[in-house]
Amino acid sequence: MSGAALCVNGVTWRPRKKAPLILHPTSFTVATGRVLGVVGPNGAGKSTLLRLLYRFQAPSSGTIEIDGANLWTMPARLAAQNVAAVLQEQAAAFGLSVREIVALGRSPHLTGLAKPGPNDRLIVDQMLDLLDLTHLAHRDFGTLSGGERQRVMVARALTQQPKVLVLDEPTNHLDIRHQLEVLALIKQLDLTIVVSLHDLNMAANICDEILMLEDGHPRGFGAPDDLLTEALVSNTFRVDARRERLAPSDAHHLSFHLPTI
Ligand SMILES: Nc1ncnc2c1ncn2[C@@H]1O[C@H](COP(=O)(O)OP(=O)(O)OP(=O)(O)O)[C@@H](O)[C@H]1O
């Protein structure tokens, strides 16, 4: 797998013509293999932006390019070879096993009515192993816990071998161990990644750049240490944010308190 440059130029989104904008003009570039974190309070527009990136809803204006190719004018199959997504809410896939769900990730790579070949099966096995799912391969997806389902969806997205991986709150439902594993995986993947996260310390830890959204407006873009200042975090989230350095790593750590009146 290898990443691609993602270039977002002035995208906006509104649910219908003449409705107020939910996402105001937003532009940024993610270089090949970098991890962009999208953060902001509830209702800031994080999922709305992500939906434009995995071709679920079209931008009302602006363009999204992957290595210079317009994501929204390329054929759907090509788009699916370029971008995979892991979403917060997964439709229950009744009757399908874990292995069958993960194997669905190969669909954009199969031509016509072609059946999966040995290479496709090998990729599925590798991703089941990577996400610690081999022992669950034959279980009905509908019987899994929330965290197990989340790992299946990450495995399916990786089986798609995309260039850009979009993850909406990927650590929801995961216990601490599996959170750390999914975050370590995100850090180590040779892909371009856009991930929305509520935990700002987690975002600072795994992201190369952060985009801060508030009320559908981009409020800042930059390296975590530069962007996540006490002032920006306090103003955007309406809290008192303190930033200190942790020993012995010397990494920044944010803590939050309700403002005293
Ligand atoms: N189809 C729609 N029609 C009208 N409003 C919408 C639609 N989709 C989203 N919104 C509104 O747009 C705003 C942004 O929603 P979005 O889900 O993108 O926020 P978010 O930053 O992902 O929030 P959260 O952290 O709570 O998941 C919210 O106020 C939401 O109610």
TrEMBL record:
PROSITE patterns assigned to the protein according to its UniProt record, in alphabetical order: ABC_TRANSPORTER_1 (PS00211), ABC_TRANSPORTER_2 (PS50893)
A Pfam family recorded for this sequence: ABC_tran
Name of this protein: Iron complex transport system ATP-binding protein
Cited SUPFAM superfamilies: P-loop containing nucleoside triphosphate hydrolases (SSF52540)
Family indicated by similarity: Belongs to the ABC transporter superfamily.
Record-linked InterPro entries: AAA+_ATPase, ABC_transporter-like_ATP-bd, ABC_transporter-like_CS, P-loop_NTPase
SMART domains assigned: AAA (SM00382)
Organism: Yoonia litorea
GO molecular function: ATP binding; ATP hydrolysis activity
Residue ranges annotated for the ABC transporter domain, each copy included: 6-240
Lineage per the UniProt record: Bacteria, Pseudomonadati, Pseudomonadota, Alphaproteobacteria, Rhodobacterales
Keywords on record: ATP-binding, Nucleotide-binding, Transport
